[in-house]
Amino acid sequence: MATEASEISQPGMADALRRRASTFRFRELTLLPAIAIAILAGALISDAFLTTNNFLNILQQSSELSVLVIAEALILIAGKFDLSLESTVGLPPMLAAWLIVSDTTFGGSGVGLNVWLAILILFATGALIGFVNGFLVVRLRLNAFIVTLAMLILLRGVTLGITNGKTLFDLPSEFLYLGSGKWLGVPVSIWIAGFLYLLVGLFLRYHRAGRAIYAVGGNPEAARAAGIRVERLIWTLYVVGGLLAALAGLMLTGRIASVVASQGQNMIFYVFAAAVIGGISLNGGRGRLLGALTGVLLLGILQNVLTLSQIAAFWIDAAYGLIILVSLILARVTGGRSREA
Amino acid sequence: MPATKSLCAGDAELAASPVAEAIGVSKRFGASQALRDVSVAIPPGDSRALVGRNGAGKSTLVGVLTGLLAPDAGQVRFGGEDAPSRADRRSWRERVACVYQKSTVIPTLTVAENLFLNAQPTTGGLIAWAALRRQARRVLEEWGLEVDVDADAEWLSVEQRQIVEIARALLQGTRFIILDEPTAQLEAREVTRLFERIARLQQGGVTFLYISHHLEEIYEVCRSVTVLRDGAVVTHAPLDEMPKDRVVAAMVGDALREDGGRRRHGRPATAAAPMLEVRDLSIPGGADHISFRVAVGETVGLAGLAGSGKEEVGDAIAGLVVPSGGEIRVGGAALRPGQVADAQRKGVGYVPRDRHRRGMVPQLSLAENLTLTITERLGPAGLVWPAERERQAARLVRSLEIVAASTEQTIAELSGGNQQKAVMGRALASEPKVLVVLHPMQGVDIASKAALFAILENARAAGAAVLIVSDDLDELVGCDRVLVMFRGRLVAEFGAEWRDHELVAAIEGVAGGD
User: Fold this and answer.
1) Which one of A7, A224, A285 has the shortest CB-CB distance to B108?
2) Does the complex come out with an ipTM higher than 0.90?
3) pTM of this structure
4) Is A38 left (phi over 0), alpha (psi -120 to 50) or beta?
């Protein structure tokens, strides 16, 4: 086919097409060398690194981040933004836990709500946050960046306000199950994250609605002309994003067996780092979940390696940031395509 | 005023109900009446040209016919039936498709997927990718359209993109296609291929509404013509009853002027000092050891097919492309390769080919756009005095006769012709010694063209060396000399008295010139 195309295009164009076709399949895997290097470094630094337990540990610690990355990836591919996801990780669990805890001296509401009802409220809150974001972005046509930034600050403030900054613990085991339970010796949160990647990944590739997300992010006007309901789709994605963030919050609460007022704080930076080094375009329309997953894994492994290494704790963030920059450069060089564009 | 003098002669024999029909359509935007009581009926198998000057209402009529605009009065019918509700995009798309100048493909998706956008074949709810690609290939083959289904759409040329858009329409079962200035961004050979494709589709039973500024084209492609002026239909007629001057007369509303007498007769090859000197210029993938000179007060055309390297040469002079070798001098001073600011400082003014991409900042005001190249003159130490900007902008608006409500109007609100004038104004603001102009008349109506030619001529008369990079003979007609590039090399040079067929032959690489 490429030869046919070259008949009606300039030679340079045909070359570009061919080049493109050959890199297409591997674009998602450009982070593999970086991951390999990180694993190698980990193995050299510590004997404790190359163990099943440590890897399960890495995966479990990455699971909440990876769920958030799915949420952000969906919204980014559609050409929008959601910064408030990290606060949505905090507020719904805080609200639910507050309703559950009956002892007011520990910051509880005194309501003593049924745990299942509380979990329902948790997800409803996440969905409601997404719905409001969607309303502001789609209906009022406010800029997604600034809307969700304001929402990030607002929700964090509410999370702090509910318990005056107190940490809620002593939560029922049902509430903590997703972050603490195990199936076949593997933490439930890993199963959930893995399942979601498979499901959403297939959805994006094999469902019309999934392809519509790419179309909307690639050229909203053309998507509209093709009969895609652009506004409704974006709105829905914000709601899905809120739901997934609430789920990530529930998983995180389970893992640390309490809800702190700062739960999820600063996560959004890592969400964006993972998504972008994984090939999700900030301009929309491009990127795959498989790539985003490699981004999450790279960050998770790095975090682990840095913790095991002898680097002074205060310098870990600096090293982390530096390595993210290097992997961006690496992905650019090996992938040949700009990550920000 | 129901100006439907007569429907096309052929109509009576053709099946009773037109493929598409607008009946008494009116549309008003704020103060301006874009369409008044417009009735157009397009019988099946017809190919109708829709012509009119900028602002005559062509775009509005297309908007109404494609269901994107709701008419204030009147109605649209397809095949004798009322148009579907405007919310039902899918039904509209089955009845009518429009290939706009602006791309409506999704750049991040493949050709195959663009063809089936939101209508992908599925098995059990999942997209069947193999079937999708197969069907896409089959449709393209069936209609003789050549484009790689697996290519990402962002890499398509303008021609290939049009093919994709046409194929997408055909796939949806549409047999009525509106082409909005399809040749505006195509080179001559691509235009020929487009016409062949249109002819083939016509034989296959596709009906076209064809919008163009190039009257020659409509005689090649269309059977009948509808002329709009000031939002109303002036006439419908079969084209064999409508010679070109009558079409133009209908568009303009008064007598026409032939070619404006722009051709320069027998001006001697200039002895004036060269203002622009290009020596041994080579650009990877573009030019191969190109040398030429343009003198003070001379207009030189640089012709060639798309991909001949002519645009790269123009871009290199402006500093937008880094050459691999050679030298460019303006007034004797060598330009630093690939440095736009240096080129500007030394006196190069540049009008890019695609004004939307390179020529203007749509959100900014007319005044800001006009003075973008001369901000250093608008105040000391990098400051920009609004009053000075206004003064400079007003001067340009006056001298270029730009029609705008005020200089504070955003440039995106101006008509195409006025935008192009503003882009030229931006290049002229710095009173350049060398003016490089790429395809200056693209997508511009006849009246604006005359004004733009006058602007170029004024710049030349004021002593600028003007280089017009184009393959449109109309744009080259006023040149003292025309240089022709073919596959990166200069292959021919003509004086002012070139003949069409000679120049075209040289451009197409058929034969060298003198």
Assistant:
1) A285
2) no
3) 0.71
4) alpha
